[in-house]
Amino acid sequence: MNKNMLVLAYLGDSIYEMYVRKYLVDLNISKVNMLQSESIKYVSAKAQASFLKEMMDINFFNDEELSIIIRARNHKNNHKPKNCDIVTYKYATALEALIGYLYYNDSFLRINEIMNYIINKKK
């Protein structure tokens, strides 16, 4: 697959956020402000980078997935993040790109495994 890493991250961002939103809605949180504040614990660049680093530390990813992560993390990007440093932003982008890559390749079971790890880690 020869997709641009930022395009995969764009796709992955929406998939990742959908999983988090569904999880929070399943908790029966009925106030939108509360949903928003809870979602930040998962979808902020700092949280995403932290999840990715932890998963890398425990060898959660296979070689193909690590290749995508590294390519996305090292991808040149002219975007200047507002709320975090560039390294944190690149790790968060790498997680989103991996999710986008897996989604694009119909690897829904693997996305579920990754998202279940993340959601259960935060409980």
Q: What distinguishing features does this structure have?
A:
123 residues, single chain, Ribonuclease iii, N-terminal Endonuclease Domain, Chain A, mainly alpha
Explain how this protein is built.
The chain is mostly helical and 123 residues long. The protein has one domain: Ribonuclease iii, N-terminal Endonuclease Domain, Chain A. The protein has six helices and no strands. It has helices at 5-26, 32-43, 45-57, 63-74, 86-104, 108-122. Helix 1 crosses helix 5 (86-104). The longest helix is centred in the N-terminal third of the chain and has 22 residues, at 5-26. The protein starts with a helix and ends with a helix. The mean pLDDT is 92.
Number of beta strands: 0
Q: CATH homologous superfamily, by name?
A: Ribonuclease III domain
- List the domain count as a whole number: 1
Structural class: mainly alpha
Assigned CATH class: Mainly Alpha
CATH architecture: Orthogonal Bundle
Averaging pLDDT over every residue, what do you get?
92
Helix count, per DSSP? 6
Shape: globular
Describe the sheet with the most strands. none
Low-confidence stretches: none
H/E order of the elements? HHHHHH
The proportion of residues forming helix, as a percent range, comes to over 70%
CATH topology description: Ribonuclease iii, N-terminal Endonuclease Domain, Chain A
End-to-end separation in angstroms reads 35 Å
